[in-house]
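so im writing up the methods section and need the Xaa-Pro dipeptidyl-peptidase C-terminal domain-containing protein record in one place, dumping it here so i stop losing it
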Amino acid sequence: MTTRTLSAARWRPRRSLAAVATVAALVTTLTGAAAAAAVTARPAGAAVATADKPVTHKDNDRVPEGAAWTQHYFPSSDGSTVELHADVLRPEGVPEGRKLPVILSIGPYFGHSGQLAFEHPAHTGPSGRFNDLIEGADLLGRGYALVLVDLRGFGGSTGCLDATGPGDQADIKAAIDWAASRPWSTGAVGMYGKSFDAMTGLVGNNLNNDALKAVVAQEPIWDLYRNIRSNGVPRTTAVSISNAYEKIATLPQLPDDEARYRAAADYEKAHPECLLTNRLGYQTADPDSEYWKARDYANLAKGSDTPLFFTQGMAEWNTEPEAMQEFLANHQGPERGWIGPWDHVRGNEKAEDGRLKMGREGWFAETMSFFDQYLKGVQPSVQYPNYAVQDNNGTWRAQDTWPVVSESATIPLKGGSYVDSGAEAGPAPDDSFVHWSAPLGQATRVTGTPRISLNTAQGFGTVMVRLHDVAPDGTATVFDEQVSTIGPGNTTFDFKAADWTLPASHSLAVEIGTTQANVLGDWLDTPSGKTIGITGAELELPLDSPSDDQATPGARAPYLDTYLLLNKTKPAPGKPSFTLSGQGEDG
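--- predicted struct ---
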């Protein structure tokens, strides 16, 4: 799950294309006997920490400078036999009796031998996944401890991997409680992560644990079902995700690790049912099943109030902004967010040319101001906006909340028909139909979560609805899309969340038709071959005017230009049949 290095794992490996192939090949090569041979060929060469024997950089170069590393084991909170492993990094030389607030991250990527695949370390040591936080924020120098906990089934923890289900939730509760109760802890815990370990932060929020004071979540998934399936249509992740995490769970560990750690890492060898159960879970089709209900973080956020600071790429191809608005509406605590047209990256991450991939300076400064406020009670010296949002024009604005909606337009659309062909070789004329708006008299922003209702008279299969921003010369960009199963009757579903400004003189084109192959090859669609007859539709659009935007510092995200290039379209021409002012059909 990386476009960078193996040390920056991400939740969804299927979409980094060439990088995925490289990682998959490496994992496959180093699985089983080949991996075991590679591991046993590595000599032990550095001190290994225990619970009461700290190790510093001087004795193990995998320990960050200025840190003292210890290892610990503790039970999960569900009463099972699952035992969790934690690597703890505290400031080196901290006086005896000094208590520290704790930054906790819990997930699948903290194994000592690698995050996604075996990384050929010369010896064991703590994961470097968040060394950027340690160094960039001077985390230890600011008087924090960092605790990295392996979820069940990964690294040095026993148990079957659970994809953030009840077992993982019990682990997260146990990890928060354990970190808060250490004799060197102040009892104040903050969670930090990106992708999977950002999702565990959302789960932590939903637990309403008093010891958890703040969550920083970069590029999380807001509802696992909607990330795996789109209204009944499976994504490629229904297959690839389980396979990827099974490989991580069975990575060989290192010969100089503790015997207890190595035994835990081999848990799946004695419990082959773990991998099968994991695989079957992802293939569950029913969104109302207990499996998916337990992983609907947005719904489970109702009434939660842990302060939350998050980032969300609106051009994400990995952890898309589906159910984001629902989560934020259900969450009642303080919120801060960076939202913009980037892909699956960290707030501090830079492109090869040195530009920040999100485009905004000060990720670690703002993160630590957030943690200082809620874990230490230190009031911020800089007043950051609650929301810093980058539009598709590359400029940043500040908002108190998100989304800001000045008008909710309900737009009736005429019907049409299409053949549910799958359009694998490119759409044919009868694969979709398009409705056009009149050209806009002023710039109009679509911000929030659009919704569409379709009335179907005949046929069954799948439907894709795409929203195009069309310039006067006919060139267009798809800025939102969604798919669903469809049959006779009414079909209503949400799009992904959007934040896209249509310039004056541009038009909105609404395309309804078969599921088209896109750049990322996202859906595992099985076209019915049937003609789908739609008698009418209703599009709900949350709108706002950019005329009163309040500027905030930030540069254009480099990925924005890539997104615009990859998502160029040319919807079928037609006469305008609606406006964006809520006036509906005009002809």
